Amino acid sequence: MLDASELVKRFGPVRALDGFDLVVSAGEVCGLVGHNGAGKTTFARIACGLDRPDSGRVLVAGAEAGGWAAQSRIGWAPQEPALYPTATARENLRLFGGLAGLRRARLRTEIAEVAAAMGLEGLLDRPVGHLSGGQQRRVQTATALLHRPPVLLLDEPTVGADPETRQALLAVVRARALEGAAVCYTTHYLPELIELDATLAVVSGGRVIARGTRQELLTGLPGRAVLTFDGPAPGGGGAEALVIASALPAEAAAEVLATLGPDARRLRGVDITQPTLDDLYRHIASGELDRAA
Ligand SMILES: Nc1ncnc2c1ncn2[C@@H]1O[C@H](COP(=O)(O)OP(=O)(O)OP(=O)(O)O)[C@@H](O)[C@H]1O
């Protein structure tokens, strides 16, 4: 659905992309992660047709990036809001929807649906320049979703979002993937990708250096679940806490909880420590991950 191959992009002496390959399938959420300056935004700009690569190509639902067909098949929410500040949120959505080819009743319906899904209803008639940073970001994300494109590129859409908004946004992303969209989701926050059931693509030095499922890439990372009990923990050798070391600690804890039986009544707390993206980068840098892209 989204297919980038051998992308190279230089800015003077900087090789922002240096042999960047990435395929994201229909229905997949791919977490695009990497340090600042790794090349994620440069890739997104090329996929959206805002920049041209020096070499290589991107196909967006079969169409060459940069052309009109590709542009109508992709929705991009950049990091920095790019909206008209004096126009209202609704006017911005009408404009972006119109540019994507939506008209009249369909445009109204899509604006109403996306506004409801993202909790924007109360903000629609306020000038975007009067909205908070988090609210503006939400409007920006809505512009990417409006025309239901088969490919979505979302660049850190939850930055500045309150917990409720964050949950709403993740729900919309999940729903769009279930409907068949290929979603490329940039974040510096690993738990979000776990919630989205995303695959991972780790970008470094302008290329994808590791690509796979969470299971493939996270195995071996430090994470833990601590289950505390009233009295001795089952199988805990007399201690009141059962400590499970796992790269996917929530899943590991759920497995143990399902086997507790009557001991479940003595459970007092579950504390999950998820591995971070920094743990993943260190893991890759140390060469422990043998599955490279
Ligand atoms: N227009 C430009 N002119 C010069 N250098 C640029 C330009 N755009 C990007 N770069 C450089 O290309 C490299 C990749 O930048 P890019 O913005 O793609 O990284 P990123 O992974 O999106 O980073 P972040 O996580 O900070 O958003 C960086 O070294 C950056 O300084």
TrEMBL record:
Q: Primary place of residence?
A: membrane
Keywords, ordered alphabetically: Antibiotic resistance, ATP-binding, Nucleotide-binding, Transport
Location within or outside the cell: Cell membrane
* BP-aspect Gene Ontology terms: response to antibiotic
Molecular function GO labels: ATP binding; ATP hydrolysis activity
Name the PROSITE patterns for this protein: ABC_TRANSPORTER_2 (PS50893)
What family does the entry list? Belongs to the ABC transporter superfamily.
By its UniProt entry, which Gene3D superfamilies does this protein fall under? P-loop containing nucleotide triphosphate hydrolases
Supply the SMART domains for this chain: AAA (SM00382)
GO cellular component assignments: plasma membrane
The name this protein carries in UniProt is: ABC transporter domain-containing protein
- Lipid bilayer topology: Peripheral membrane protein
